Amino acid sequence: MEKSMRRNCILCIVCFCALVMSLVDGILNPVYPVKAAIKLVLFLLVPLVGYYRFAPDELCLIFRSGKRAWFQAMLLGVGVYVLIVGAYFVLRPFYDFSTITTQLAAGEGVHAGNFLYVGTYIAIVNSLLEELFFRGFAFLTLRRYLKTGVACCISALAFALYHVGMTVGWFSPVLFALALLGLFVGGCLFNALDWRSESIWASWMLHFCANAAINTVGCILMGIF
């Protein structure tokens, strides 16, 4: 009974935080500093309380590092970087990506003047928060109470749905669906890396490279380089 209660509490925390953050992005759409503060509460403070209550020893374990996992993540990260940037150049003749920069400027106050600062925060800090929450808490901790495959799918699905609020309206329906599918598959890949290493360092490296690629595309769109 105690195990079932802990599992349900973790599931509720994961669903609640992911849903609230998606609604903040999609409906409230505050300027980026406000959104970052909300995310710090939902993706850092809330899971830390969850760790303290349900898995106090897990928090130290998820920050272990291994050379093999790091090497694999670096190779995958380079591949993901090339894939994302390459996809942009392939799709650029068929899709007008300028609407993305317009929405970022109008909604979150992100523009060419502050994009490098925001992009650096997203690549390093924001990716770490998401890995701590979705891979550390929503996968590595949840797999204590569920089968690994089930925990992996729940974590990846929450990760994809969390991005709905921030990306809705960016793409055509087909590209939007493909983006969500890619996020789900990417979440599963991140989980697989963490399952092998039992830490979040490998997935954080891969996540960092993916965000760096998106930032590169953003710099091109905003004329920074």
Describe the overall structure:
The structure is a single chain. The chain is mainly alpha-helical and 225 residues long. It has helices at 2-28, 32-54, 58-61, 67-91, 98-108, 115-141, 148-162, 164-167, 173-197, 201-221. Helix content is 81%, strand content 0%. Helix 6 packs antiparallel against helix 10 (201-221), helix 7 crosses helix 9 (173-197) and helix 9 (173-197) packs antiparallel against helix 10. It is globular and about 55 Å long. It starts with a helix and ends with a helix. The model has no long low-confidence stretch (mean pLDDT 86).
Indicate the radius of gyration in whole angstroms: 17 Å
Share in helix: over 70%
Order of helices and strands: HHHHHHHHHH
Q: Mind summarizing the main beta sheet?
A: none
Mean pLDDT comes to 86
Which helices and strands occur, and which strands form pairs?
Layout: H1 2-28, H2 32-54, H3 58-61, H4 67-91, H5 98-108, H6 115-141, H7 148-162, H8 164-167, H9 173-197, H10 201-221
Key words describing this protein structure:
globular, 225 residues, mainly alpha
In short:
This protein is an all-alpha fold and 225 residues long. 81% of the residues lie in helices and 0% in strands.
